[in-house]
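2.7 Reproducibility. Because tokenized structures are sensitive to small changes in the input, we list the exact sequence used for Serine/threonine-protein kinase Nek8, including any N-terminal residues retained from the expression construct. No trimming or masking was applied before prediction.
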Amino acid sequence: MELGAGTDGQLATGRLQDEHSPQLLCSLSAFGHIIFLSCGGAHVIALSPGGRVLTWGRGTSGQLGHGEMVSSSQPKAVKALESFTITHVSAGWNHSGFVSGSGAIYTCGDGSFGQLGHGDFKSQCSPVEVSFFSSKHVEQVACGMRHSLVLLRGNADHQVYGFGSGKRGQLGISTEKVKSTSLPQITMGLTNVRIVNISANGDHSAALSGEGEVFMLGGDRHGALTDPQKTSLTVDASDNGSVMTWGWGEHGQLGLGDTNDQAAPQVVSLAHKPAEKHPISRVYCGSGFSFVLRTYDSNTQTRQRKLKI
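Resulting structure tokens (single pass, no recycling of outputs):
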């Protein structure tokens, strides 16, 4: 299901308008099952079980990977990646990253801050392999507003590299020396920690260790955290499959039928299917829009459908 801002086609309805209540997304049915989504500034990347990649939304920087800098209000397969089995994807503000099963990484979109990792500041409208990692095995990519993180596999520490804008400390590199870099740099402060998951959003970054520790770096309201800071984290999840939203609601992205902000969690009504029969598996949030992924059984085969809000 989908909801929220849709003026760039990021809701995949074929219409360039906002949706204030959850809507069933039917445009993906022709592509089969979807197991993972990543929502960026105004574009979305979807991944199928077989490693096929679909993109839609704003494409004016080439972030959709279709070989042109054009937006799309309907999901389209990224043809340049069809010869690879993609295992992980990430949508940044105006750029995208894709990791293959063989450990290669490909990027496209806005490169004006070096966030594509190709050693220059050029944009790309089709996915291009990041040659720096050609002799390494990439496991994950995380794309923020103007920077990217990469997690490697095959070493004891699971090293993290960053590239792109680093002026707020989001790369874990001294802001006095590096404002931006177009070549990957190792993220200092995480070299002796076994990192298992990474995240990038806006001008900050996060990393999760195998021991359950969360490390934060980058911009906050009071300045830049150049060195990774260990953080305590508490998350409450509903055990009955309900979805709760709160915060900024200007575009209807909270799915409550209005455009009001909410200071406290509110339950979202998902009336398309009974939640007990078709439980929510994941929720994805972009900039002013959201998607809900729901699991259901049909003909004894488990499938997943997407709802947008």
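The chain has no helices and 23 strands.
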